[in-house]
Amino acid sequence: MSNFFKSAILIFSFTILSCSGQKIKDGDIIFQSSLSGQSKAVEEATNSPYSHCGIIFYENGIPYVYEAVQPVGKRKLDDWIASGKDKKYKIMRYIDSTVLTSEKIEEMKNYAKKQFGKNYDIYFGWSDKEWYCSELVWKTYKNVLGIELVKPKALREFNIDAPIVRKTMAKRYGKNIPYDENMVSPGQLFESELVDEIK
User: Fold this and answer.
1) Domains along the chain?
2) What distance in Å separates the CA atoms of residue 20 and residue 70, rounded to the nearest whole number?
3) Closest C-alpha to 184, from 144, 139, 147
4) Least enclosed by CB within 10 Å: which of 68, 78, 147, 151?
């Protein structure tokens, strides 16, 4: 495919994203149901249709999703959307846009970039050594803006009795299930009272 047609497709895609409603902005949080092996267990445990999330930031006019996968990094927005179940997604925005100044956006980008290359945290721990998706979103807002989008919950507070969740935990943790480990889920972030959906 020629560069001309690639550029045309890219522009058309961005036009759809912008004209379908409010324009996507830096700092917006995007959600999807991923195709990973643990996706169904995450959705069951959190009573949510979403198992993955990331933060959107522009680079040279192109939107990227900064995310915690293996390893932590970024993908172009179109690629990220295409990787989800049925290519469906939702975008949420922090309710007070005046907080997200250009300076703070740069700080958020730099904070997230410092985590690039780190391993994905399959155990959903709360340290900064390894990361999972909603942890990256939550800590970027908390550590740069001082905003707690939601209150972390202990593992035991999620729906951990669902059969697929029990099976996944047994495989992941064995007998040492960290019931009291604080965690933040994509579903919690999506339901936060501090964000609104972008239509």
Assistant:
1) 22-197 (3.90.1720.10)
2) 32
3) 139
4) 151
